[in-house]
Amino acid sequence: MTSPITGTAAGVPFTALPPAGDGPAPLIVTWHMLDAPRSDAAFAAALPMNGLPAWRVHLGMPMCGARMVDGSTDAIVALFQKDPLMSFLHPFVRQATEEFPAALASIRAQLPVGDGPIGVLGGSLGGAVALRILADTEIPVFAGAVVNGAIRIRSVVDLFPGDYPYDAESEEIVDALDVVADAGRIAARAPLLVVSGEQDHPALRADALDLVDAMGDRAELLSIPGLAHPLADEPGIEPAPQLPPAREVDAGLVEWFRRHLAPA
User: Fold this and answer.
1) What gap in Å lies between CA 47 and CA 4, rounded to an integer?
2) Is pLDDT above 60 for 78?
3) 3-state secondary structure of 175
4) Is the torsion defined by CA of 24, 49, 36, 133 positive or negative?
5) pLDDT value at position 95?
6) Is 212 left (phi over 0), alpha (psi -120 to 50) or beta?
């Protein structure tokens, strides 16, 4: 099997997995979880999507992987302890979304991926990024997928201890990060596979079902028995052997993107 290619694209670290064969191929871009696997390299090992006739380029989220502060996640912990929404969730999604157009241009300059529509995939908070690319940009996308995605950021905030002290600004931001409200725009952009672990946080699983309902025939739900929120064991920073539930997710993603690659 071909070794991963690592590099940076406009300052964003990536782990790229090439397709079998030579010549240009379509591109699928991913954003990893902040739970395990919490780096681009670890996400590539958990969901490699081998066998797809496409490049899979796994991007690093802010302050993760090669962008960790002092080689640890302590700085991220400090941010969500300070304010889980305004210091952590919102700025991470915003930065990853805003830096993507330049990163995409750099990927296209470095790898033989062509300039056609791309696939997008995100896990957990990375799912919020993939969905914002669909909702807020004009970048052509042939298909998208989320795995245990952060579909409503309010549900993610509720996972942190205590009652969050919303004010006018944070209410506006958390409402803007409710992807179910954007279902119409996303449905008009690309078909979406919503992968949901049957043991995921109940609120996140409910949000997944709501998004599929709101998108109608433009979305499909893939439920994974026995899958909780993470896709890998802790610490989730370095590549690790693929766990059985992740293998099932991976197979579903391969089938989904293969189905939509042909017309792309």
Assistant:
1) 13
2) yes
3) helix
4) positive
5) 94
6) alpha
User: In this structure, what token pair is assigned to residue 37?
Assistant: 């696997």
Name which of 40, 37, 31 is nearest 5 in CA terms: 40
**203-237 exposure pattern, b = at least 16 Cβ within 10 A, e = fewer:** ebbebbebbbebbeebbbebebeebebbbbeeebb
CB 158 within 8 A of CB 120: no
pLDDT digits 0-9 by tens, 197-254:
999 999 999 999 999 999 999 999 999 999 999 999 999 999 999 999 999 999 999 9
- Render pLDDT for 113-163 as a digit per residue (tens, 0 to 9): 989 999 999 999 999 999 999 999 999 999 999 999 999 999 999 999 999
What domains appear along the chain, each with residue ranges and CATH number? 5-261 (3.40.50.1820)
Q: Which amino acid is located at 199 in the chain?
A: Q
Q: Find all residues with CB under 8 Å of 52, minimum gap 6, and list them.
A: 19, 28, 254, 257, 258, 261
Residue 246's H or E segment, with its range, is helix 244-261
Handedness of CA 242, 229, 179, 214 (dihedral sign): positive
Strand stretches in 18-117, DSSP E = 27-31, 55-59
